[in-house]
Structure to design on (845 residues):
């Protein structure tokens, strides 16, 4: 079927820049293709497109004015934060306006007594963390892109991070947002306290990938920084043993602040990048415990015991901030380190019930062999959130396609094990097909209806996050009903 | 235990066909919440049982008609609990009711709301379709988060059939302390204490006494008691606060019991402190007022929050006032789940 290219935005609406300037005089308007390069993609760099044009409003009032105008003219809008998303949620379109929130970047209030902060969406995650640190407080979600990613983007993706096992995702730490709807109206969801009036729409907006509205202000909760931290490292000679040790820690009633795993290939990449540091092994666990000094130490002892009973071949406990930082350094460098192993990598983001970690990791290894590609695993074991990194070389013909095919098989394996296709990176454009594995027609219809409730014309970030029913039908109905694939008798892995 | 999915879905389909308003019902223990609405009860009685529970996963999947006390007992046998600690109003509710009402106990600011622990659910929507949202895993950003939206929707969006809940380990130890302080002094103590990483899981003030609950590891609780002081108190206080059986709630008489949700450090000066109980470290305030007194609602707005008439007999006035774009959006969302408007029409708001 021939795909018709949409008419570029400025060809369809030549007077749009003039009309935008009239309603949002402070906004920067980028109308020349030469200015669009930074907006051509987000963190999913394999997918690039030209935007129709780019607007960078100065404040919330201008955001509303721009959306109102675009609504009237039926111009699609792609909201954009820092562009660090990994699923193409901010991928532009030729027929759409990119709305950058970069200039709404003020921290409006830090209230140490209420333990909250009110910020604009363009404030960077780490910047907020640094601003509240002098009060002895911290903002819990800490996605690995926290140096660059913004809080507005964190809301759109429901960002997690290393510490969400104990302290929750963005949805657990978000108290209120001002949301501008596509028609230009603003609603405040949530309240001054811990909840808001009416239906609880905040969790729906959180993780909605810019389809429901544009956040122009948000209030988040801050937590007291724990007094003391310990990090326990354990090396295992089998992935499955490490997986079982994760379950044993949780079963023992311990809720670590973070619990991460790396496999042999990931460890090799880190060693090549940072030099030797971790013991050589099949699987490495890093477990962070916090609390008052006595508590953190007692927990670290118990976790070390769990790991020893689980067959760890080596255990180390870091007790000083410096020693903890040293143990974390390799984990934090894991993604950049992959560049040492292959020119390109493709990050997956499936989530699993934790008791199936070991088994699915073995399935992934088998699938990788079948596709002739290497897969390294670096992930949030405590949450069951896998990040298999498929290594490939885009310069070799067919390798990118092979990597994507392997990715789909891995996600199918996650869903078949009772998990999900994306734990924290979002659907964007990348996992639209995988959504058809996860959901049936009824659920997808409900998502579309919910979207129309917020944006009746479907102009906000169209073509992202929720696949059309048509698309899923064309894929041939691979929906995995509640962990059961159709025709379970067929060999798939 | 039994699975009544098909039968319940058929009843919803029938109601949709005949446009008969229906009211999802567990045991009716929270029937007083919301506006009165005329609808035929659709009870989940008998739709019970734990579908899946693996303690090491910290997740339990359970049918909505399961009595809440039964689930709590089952979890306790494995050393686990529902972190949101829902109230058990007589005659004791169901799991579906706890999720639909969205009420959390005194630990809410530290242990999270109901919706913070709902990982997935199955529901019958207004067309009678059985739909599955979310899952059994901790992190899941595939599709809009419908499961959490159902929390506190008071049965206006659909009939909940099954929920997957995150559970947490029971604390090693729990200890309750009480301090004699007036409201302002209590508030300033809390402002200081709650900024520190003490293992607090409850902070409430009433009648000149500040109650503090500490829970966690022995080491952490012992260290906190040493630093904070106070007198030992029986932990039954917290259950009575959660279930509204404290003397404060019993002396309501004909007055309205208001629930105010405000910033925890909002000034207490505007309150009639004789008729106010501060919970959630000050973020949830229970206020008794005469039926025709709109004062609590105005006060909540002045303090940057909102108020609901939590209990009033007879239910003469709206449970909660919503207006403008927010009301419109609530109505839009309601219609997207229930186009015929059969689920508890008007219980939350006009048109919701």
């Amino acid at each position: 079927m021939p795909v018709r290219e949409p008419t570029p935005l400025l060809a369809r609406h030549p007077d749009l820049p003039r009309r935008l300037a009239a309603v949002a005089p402070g906004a920067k308007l980028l109308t020349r293709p030469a200015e669009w390069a930074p907006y051509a993609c987000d963190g999913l760099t394999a997918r690039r497109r030209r935007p129709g044009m780019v607007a960078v409003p100065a404040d919330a009032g201008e955001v509303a004015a721009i959306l109102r105008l675009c609504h009237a003219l039926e111009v699609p809008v792609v909201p954009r934060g820092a562009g660090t998303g990994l699923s193409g949620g901010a991928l532009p379109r030729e027929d759409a306006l990119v709305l950058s929130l970069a200039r709404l970047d003020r921290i409006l209030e830090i209230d140490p007594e209420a333990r909250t902060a009110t910020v604009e969406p363009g404030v960077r995650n780490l910047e907020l963390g640094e601003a509240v640190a002098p009060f002895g407080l911290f903002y819990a979600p800490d996605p690995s892109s926290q140096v660059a990613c913004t809080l507005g983007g964190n809301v759109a993706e429901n960002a997690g991070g290393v510490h969400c096992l104990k302290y929750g995702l963005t949805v657990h730490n978000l108290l209120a947002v001002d949301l501008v709807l596509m028609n230009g109206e603003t609603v405040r969801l949530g309240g001054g306290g811990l909840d808001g009036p009416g239906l609880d729409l905040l969790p729906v907006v959180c993780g909605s990938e810019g389809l429901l509205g544009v956040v122009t202000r948000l209030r988040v909760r801050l937590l007291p920084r724990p007094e003391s931290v310990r990090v326990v490292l354990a090396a295992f000679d089998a992935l499955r043993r490490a997986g079982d040790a994760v379950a044993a820690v949780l079963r023992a009633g311990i809720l670590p602040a973070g619990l991460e795993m790396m496999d042999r290939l990931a460890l090799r990449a880190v060693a090549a990048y940072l030099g030797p540091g971790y013991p050589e092994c099949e699987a490495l666990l890093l477990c962070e415990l916090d609390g008052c000094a006595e508590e953190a130490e007692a927990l670290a002892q118990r976790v070390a015991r769990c790991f020893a009973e689980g067959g760890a071949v080596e255990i180390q406990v870091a007790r000083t901030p410096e020693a903890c930082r040293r143990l974390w350094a390799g984990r934090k460098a894991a993604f950049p380190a992959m560049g040492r192993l292959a020119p390109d990598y493709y990050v997956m983001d499936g989530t699993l019930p934790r008791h199936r970690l070991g088994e699915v990791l073995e399935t992934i290894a088998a699938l990788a062999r079948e596709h002739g590609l290497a897969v390294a695993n670096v992930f949030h074991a405590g949450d069951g959130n896998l990040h298999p990194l498929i290594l490939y070389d885009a310069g070799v013909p067919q390798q990118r396609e092979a990597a994507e095919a392997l990715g789909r098989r891995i996600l199918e394996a996650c869903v078949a094990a009772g998990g999900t296709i994306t734990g924290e990176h979002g659907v964007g454009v990348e996992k639209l097909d995988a959504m058809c594995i996860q959901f049936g027609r009824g659920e997808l219809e409900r998502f579309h209806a919910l979207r129309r409730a917020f944006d009746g014309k479907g102009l906000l970030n169209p073509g992202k996050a929720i696949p059309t029913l048509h698309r899923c039908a064309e894929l041939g109905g691979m929906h995995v009903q509640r962990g059961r694939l159709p025709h379970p008798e067929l060999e798939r892995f | 235990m039994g699975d009544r999915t098909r039968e319940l879905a058929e009843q919803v389909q029938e109601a949709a066909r005949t446009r008969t308003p229906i009211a999802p019902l567990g045991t009716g223990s929270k029937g007083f919440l919301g506006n009165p609405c005329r609808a035929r009860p659709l009870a989940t009685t008998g739709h019970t049982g734990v579908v899946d529970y693996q303690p090491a996963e910290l997740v339990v999947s359970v049918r909505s008609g399961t009595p809440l006390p039964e689930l709590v007992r089952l979890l306790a046998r494995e050393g686990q609990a529902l972190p949101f600690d829902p109230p058990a109003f007589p005659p004791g509710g169901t799991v579906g009711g706890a999720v639909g009402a969205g009420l959390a106990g005194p630990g809410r600011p530290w242990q999270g709301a109901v919706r913070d622990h709902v990982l997935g659910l199955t529901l019958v929507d207004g067309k009678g379709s059985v739909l599955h949202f979310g899952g059994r895993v901790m992190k899941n950003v595939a599709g809009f988060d419908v499961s959490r939206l159902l929390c506190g929707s008071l049965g206006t969006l659909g009939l909940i059939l099954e929920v997957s809940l995150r559970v947490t380990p029971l604390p090693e130890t729990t200890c309750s302390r009480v301090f004699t302080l007036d409201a302002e002094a209590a508030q300033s103590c809390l402002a200081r204490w709650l900024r520190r990483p003490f293992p607090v899981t409850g902070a409430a003030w009433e009648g000149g006494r500040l109650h503090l609950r500490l829970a966690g590891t022995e080491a952490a609780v012992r260290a906190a008691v040493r630093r904070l002081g106070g007198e030992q108190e029986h932990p039954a206080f917290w259950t009575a606060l959660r279930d509204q059986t404290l003397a404060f709630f019993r002396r309501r008489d004909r007055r309205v019991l208001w629930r105010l949700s405000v910033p925890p450090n909002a000034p207490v000066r505007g309150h009639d402190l004789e008729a106010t109980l501060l919970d959630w470290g000050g973020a949830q305030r229970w206020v008794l007022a005469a039926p025709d007194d709109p004062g609590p609602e105005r006060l909540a707005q002045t303090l940057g929050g909102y108020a609901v008439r939590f209990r009033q007999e007879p239910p003469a006035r709206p449970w909660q006032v919503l207006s403008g774009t927010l009301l419109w959006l609530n109505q839009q969302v309601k219609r997207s789940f229930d186009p015929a408007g059969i689920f508890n029409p008007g219980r939350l708001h006009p048109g919701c």
